[in-house]
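testing teh design pipeline on a random one, pls ignore if ur not involved
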């Protein structure tokens, strides 16, 4: 099991590699706002646990295991962000998702995913919840802010 810090590194490696660009240590350091020695140390650990292949030529590639886990980490972040946006924290959802994502089990992530999917597929329920929040004095952002297409559908297209 990866620590939250190692998950962050693997998630970023996956994000960079998904852009069809080479993964460089400097890119990871810049995106995570950490120093190069920290990245090297993390990559060595990820390599020892068979998530990445990291050699002296500084080329970094994901192993099949790393690709699978990295994809899960990115999707987990997307699910939580989408859920938080639905709840009304659209301006801070991405930052908050980063803060809480490591604490959720796969069972909870799946439950959140199903809830968001349900709300996407049942606009009447979404509207009722939105009205409920407005009645309580806490209006939510518009539907386009929270529902930009389910990750389930995006995942199906990329698998």
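output:
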């Amino acid at each position: 099991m990866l620590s939250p810090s190692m998950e962050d590194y693997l998630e970023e490696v996956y994000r960079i590699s998904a852009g069809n660009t080479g993964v460089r240590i400097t890119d990871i350091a810049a995106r995570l706002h950490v120093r190069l020695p920290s990245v090297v140390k993390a990559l060595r650990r990820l390599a020892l646990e068979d998530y990445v292949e990291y050699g002296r030529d500084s080329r970094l590639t994901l192993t099949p295991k790393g690709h699978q886990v990295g994809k899960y980490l990115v999707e987990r972040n997307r699910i939580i962000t989408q859920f938080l946006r639905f709840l009304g924290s659209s301006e801070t959802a991405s930052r908050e998702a980063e803060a809480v994502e490591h604490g959720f089990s796969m069972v909870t992530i799946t439950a959140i995913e199903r809830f968001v999917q349900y709300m996407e597929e049942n606009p009447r329920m979404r509207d009722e919840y939105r009205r409920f929040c407005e009645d309580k004095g806490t209006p939510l952002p518009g539907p386009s802010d929270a529902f930009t297409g389910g990750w389930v559908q995006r995942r199906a297209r990329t698998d």
